[in-house]
Write a structure and sequence with these properties.
- With 315 residues, this protein is an alpha/beta fold.
- It has 2 domains: 8-137 and 151-205 and 298-314, Alpha-Beta Complex (Spore Coat Polysaccharide Biosynthesis Protein SpsA, Chain A), CATH 3.90.550; 227-295.
- Helix content is 50%, strand content 16%.
- It has helices spanning 21-31, 50-60, 75-85, 102-114, 132-149, 164-172, 180-186, 210-224, 227-255, 263-295; strands spanning 8-14, 37-43, 64-69, 90-93, 119-127, 160-163, 191-198, 303-307.
- It has an 8-stranded mixed beta sheet, sandwiched between helices.
- Helix 5 (132-149) packs parallel to helix 8 and helix 9 (227-255) runs antiparallel to helix 10 (263-295).
- The two termini are 28 Å apart.
Length: 315
């Protein structure tokens, strides 16, 4: 039963954020002044003093806890670890760099308390540090994912509130290669939305390079649809039809005595077919590598330390 006494766990993944841990803690408690919350930091194998700061804060405040990975496993693993460990009646996953405003998180909690929804998504209206090229690339990615998998993540983010039911469903998903943003949408549970403008980072720099973002986009699309492999099949049939037409044309020219000067055409066809074959093998290779990684059944992450949390209950 939802009430003002329902407890919400704020999940904050951190990686080399020593300069902002204390500030985000202060801002969260300030925004949730009258709410029943606790904060769970998930240290994704930081190499600076981030974990020491989290441990010190936990000693001073019993509402702050933390878990630490043995190495850097990535933000996806950090968010799912937080969802697995959080004990609140609901939980809010948000970035620690203050680009996910705590005031919006409080708005999400208020909405959850007044509604019967299981998930509340924070949708970006505008991002202050986003250039035109990045925006175009993001829109292309969202459209491809929506058209192939039916999951609409346009301007979506990892900034979400999950109730206990949604969290338990996500925890039960066994896949090793995950996309948290889409996992919540895949459940189909009743969802509400709030809208926010993404402010500039409060400190540090983004950990996502163009390569990492591209890799994440490819993994995300292939994790929720087999359409790329089906496209390869359609291309194959298309070239088969083209080959039949070219064969008919060749026989026609042969029997009617036309001079066949098609050397450039043959070269172009070989280059096109060779390119299609290589792209096709690459797409198939991506899916095979995903199968390979899944069947190994390695854990998504390895925990090495904890503060304010019973480490034995996490496995």
């Amino acid at each position: 039963m939802r009430s003002d006494t329902s407890r919400c766990t704020i999940i904050l993944p951190v990686f080399n954020e020593e300069g902002i841990v204390e500030r985000i803690t202060t801002e969260v408690f300030k925004a949730f002044l009258m709410a029943n919350i606790d904060i769970l930091f998930v240290d994704d194998g930081s190499t600076d003093s981030t974990w020491d700061t989290v441990a010190e804060l936990s000693k001073k405040n019993p509402l702050i806890s933390g878990i630490r990975f043995s190495r850097n496993f990535g933000k996806e693993s950090a968010m799912l670890a937080g969802v697995s460990v959080a004990t609140g009646d609901c939980m809010i996953v948000m970035d620690s760099d203050l680009q996910h405003p705590p005031e919006i998180a409080m708005e999400m909690l208020d909405l959850w308390l007044k509604s019967d929804c299981s998930i509340i998504e924070a949708v970006k209206i505008r991002r202050q540090d986003e250039n035109a090229l990045k925006k175009i690339a993001a829109n292309i990615f969202y459209k491809i994912l929506h058209s192939t998998s039916g999951i609409d993540l346009h301007n979506g983010s990892d900034f979400k509130l999950l109730d206990r039911r949604a969290a338990d469903i996500i925890k039960s998903m066994p896949e090793r290669q995950t996309f948290f943003r889409a996992m919540a949408g895949w459940t189909g549970l009743k969802t509400e939305k709030v809208f926010f403008e993404v402010p500039l980072r409060a400190g540090g720099s983004t950990k996502f390079s163009v390569f990492k973002l591209t890799k994440m986009a490819i993994n995300s699309i292939t994790a929720y649809t087999s359409m790329p492999m089906q496209v390869v099949t359609f291309i194959g049939f298309g070239f088969l039809l083209f080959a039949i037409i070219m064969t008919i044309q060749t026989f026609y020219r042969y029997f009617f005595g036309y001079v066949e000067g098609g050397f450039p055409t043959v070269i172009i066809l070989l280059l096109i077919i060779g390119s299609i074959l290589m792209i096709s093998l690459g797409i198939i290779g991506i899916y095979i590598s995903k199968i390979y990684n899944e069947v190994k059944l390695r854990p998504r992450y390895i925990l090495s330390e904890s503060v304010g949390v019973n480490l034995k209950k996490m496995y």
